[in-house]
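Continuing the batch. This is chain 6 of the set; chains 1 through 5 are on the previous pages. Same settings as before, nothing changed between runs. Recording input and output for traceability.
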Amino acid sequence: MIRSSGLIAVLLFLFAGPVFAGATYITTHDNENNDLEGKSDGDMDSYLDMDDDESPIEFNIFVNGALPNNSAYLTIYAEDVDEEQGEIDDVYFNGHKLGFLRGANGQWNTSAYEINPSWVQSGKNLVVIDINAGHPEVTENENWAVEVDWGQLLIDGGAADKGDTSTVDIVSFLINNNQVTIDTTTTFQSITGGNYILEISLIHPNGAASNILSDSLSSSPNQTVEVNNSVTYSLGNESGEFTIQAQLFYVNGGVYQQQDIETRKFYHEQNQGPIDIDNDGLTNTAEQSIGTEIFNPDSDGDGVEDGIEVGPDANNPLDDDVDGVIDALDPCFPDDTTVACQAYDSDGDGVPNVNDAFPNDPTESVDTDNDGIGNNADSDDDNDGFSDADEL
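Output for chain 6:
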């Protein structure tokens, strides 16, 4: 948005503290100046453009607990980022460039950046936002402006002490009039109960965000909450990996304490749409052919994606234990020692695999024609090349 006059003042404070396995650190007030003297110059919670003396916007997020073991995310809540109109506000974390702010004209939006955990340090962690800096293509009539409300640092998934997102699922999609609509369901557990904000964004392959949706929710303690949303984009978009991003916040006295970030990815082919809707490396067509689930990247729930378990040739999917069930649909591969797998009967003949010549050929007990002879041993009485069982 082109800058308008006036500043917006917001009450602010600092909240930080590691809880459970992860931690969330929040800075909601300005605590740094351009000379990095540890003094406030008032550039947070102010509507600034690149020509203001306070620009760029800088602040510190303080980490006073354990450093990340697995992951780290930086999130920034900003208003009026005219990303689609050409505004580019570069974001840096401890001197490392992460990308640019995401958003839309006149809207508040949370930009999220996955960062190298080794970049996080104890004590001060400096965040800098250059308002259209390094992009002199702005004209006299296009002096971009932005307001930053807060920044948060999520360590090892975030605190998730007030609420915990379990899944972001793509449940269906539709192509109509050169527009793709993706239907999603996000599920989270309300731990303490209270007020929550769930923000859904569609992240394009180039990092741009669209379809920024925000749901305000209230729930009781230990309640499971499901939220349905739909996002849309043009069928003519360039091919690449899209991301549905869900960010859960707990509202505490007007401060949004971020709980976690969950994502679900899919692959879009230009002018064709989502050809791999669960982004597991198998096209929707291939999955329908071999029987795996097109909306679930791990059909058998064993922690290995379908594309890996099917192998390099979807026309000849892997069946490593030779039990008649391809690996991607076999919850008992490679471990058949669990209680559930001791009773698993992949050929449906009433004999569990463990007692059915497993893992060699559990299908040998199937007797399709009920003649007392298993199919594999069934004769071809008329010598026509078809077993008796096949000729039923």
